[in-house]
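Recall that a protein's primary structure is simply its ordered list of amino acids. Everything else, from secondary elements to tertiary packing, is in principle encoded there. The following example makes that idea concrete.
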Amino acid sequence: MKIIRPRLPQNCRVICVSDIHANLKHFKMLLEKCQYNKDKDYLFILGDIIEKGRDNLQTLRYVMELCKDDKVICTKGNNDTMCVRMAFDDHKDKFLERISSRPHNTFLEMAESIGIENFGEDFKEKQKKVAQSFKNELEFLKNLPIAIETKHHIFVHAGIEHRSDWQNTSERYAITQPWYLRFEHCSPKTVVCGHYPTYNYRRANNTCLPIFDNKKRMICIDGGASTKCAAQLNALIINDHGGKYDYETVFVPLGEERTVKNAVTSNCKPVHVDWESHTLTVIEKQGDLLYVQIDQTGERGLIPENRTGCWQGKLHGWVHLNTFLSAKEGERFYISAETEEYYFGIAENGQVGLLPKRCFE
C-alpha cells in the first residue's frame, strides 16, 4: 500500500476534506470558509474527488494544480479508480454497461471535450485516443497514494484493516470498506476517513457532520456530497499546539440557500432509518407524506413519499422519519428537495429535515 509520510512542522494546521465528488464550486467555497492559506496550511484530500457531480474534469485539474504544492496530498478513492478502469481495463461490454448506469462521468467528459461520442462503434480506437489525450490526468489518478501517515493520525479514504501491520491493508479494503465506524483497528493513531456519509449512522444525530469516535480512534468526515439528498462538504481542521491537538469542523451545504422569514417550532424527534437494512411498511398516506413503520424496529413516523423507493422488492427510506425542524426568523436553510408543503434540506445548525414552505413566504 502506497503511504505518504509528510513531516509536519510544529504548530501547523491540517485541513482535511473527503468525497468532493466533482462539486468544485462548493469545494472552493469550503476552502475559503476555512481561510485556507496555501503558504502555511497542509491540505489532505481523502479520495473520491470525481464522479457523481457535474464538474469532473475541472475538479480533477484543480486538485492536480493544488497537489503541485508539497503541502497538498490527495489519496485515492474508489470513484477515482473508475476513470482509470474505463481508460485501460474495461472491455466494450463492461464499458457500455458502466455508462448505462452512470451516463455522466469523468471519462465521458474527457471524450466529449475532444469530440468523441458513441462508444458503440470503433470502441478500442476511441478508448485509446481518449487515454492518450488525457495521459497526465489518468496518470495522476492511477498513481495516487492510498494513505497518509503522520505522528498521530492515519488518513485514508475508507479505512484500514484490523491488523498490527495495517500498512499491508489491501487497496480494495482501504478504498471500498463500507460502514467503517462499525469496525476496529489496531493502530494507536486516529484514523480519519471518508467514503461512507456520516448521515448513514445513527450517531450523526440527523446531520451530515463529522463523527468522532474517541474510543475506536476514528473520525468519519464524508458529508454525502452528490450521494445524499441533503448533503454538504465537510472540512476537519486539525490544529497542532506543540504536540497537542484540537479539532474544528467547517461545512458548506450543497443546496439552494434561503432565509427563514417566519419562525417555526417543532417538538418532533427524528427516527433513524438505516437505508440498507431497514424496510418500511406504509400505514397510511398523508398528502405527500407517508406514515410508516420500520419493520425491524417497530418505530413509526412520517417520511416524504419522494424520499422512499423500492429496492430488492422492499420499500426503503433514504431519509430519517419525523425530521420536522425548528427555525428562527433570519436563519439560513439550504434546500435540496421539496414536497407540496415542505422543503427538505439542511438547517444552519447542520440538522437535516423538513421546514414548511410558509416559513419562507
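The longest strand covers residues 232-241. Residues 64 and 136 are 10 Å apart (CA to CA).
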